[in-house]
Hints:
The chain is α/β, with parallel strands linked by helices. The chain has one domain (2-185): Rossmann fold, CATH 3.40.50.300. The protein is built from 9 helices and 7 strands. Helix 1 (2-10) packs parallel to helix 2. The radius of gyration is 16 Å and the shape is globular.
Amino acid sequence: AVQAIVDCIQQNRGNGYIWHTTGSGKTLTSFKASTLLKDNQDIEKCLFVVDRKDLDRQTRQEFNRFQPGCVEENTNTETLIQRLLSDDYTDKVIVTTIQKLGLALDANHKKQYKQRLKPLRDKRLVFIFDECHRSQFGENHRAIREFFPNAQLFGFTGTPIFPENATYRTIEGEAARMVTTADIFG
């Protein structure tokens, strides 16, 4: 999985998802992929995005257990913005929540985070989503794709969404269809 992600990024050939069962090493796999990407000069930032606060803490602890001091806590959206805009090598890999990322891309937020992120708009960023079956079927995903057109997105999931278990529907013209993990990530 690590090699597939790294190859996909080196060849700049789209997105994808990794189907791992529970307890099979998703965090270690994503950590290794992130640290290899840290040395890729073509990548501006690598964000590992989780869907809730307890996973944020747990992921940071695991990453730092694998390599002490490799990621810092983003206590709020302002801290996330500062790390995204930082040129410091230590801020190249960022662990954050989808909620903070959503606030960062909210055009109506009073702190104008989105406006401040414009220098990153056309850069190559990599997003790795944990539990992507829960967090990537709505407005946040659309906002990420629209704001970062050169980003590559990878999802990790133990339960991918297939046509038979899909609940999210999209309307295209006159037809509605169910959306799967493959539709989102390729």
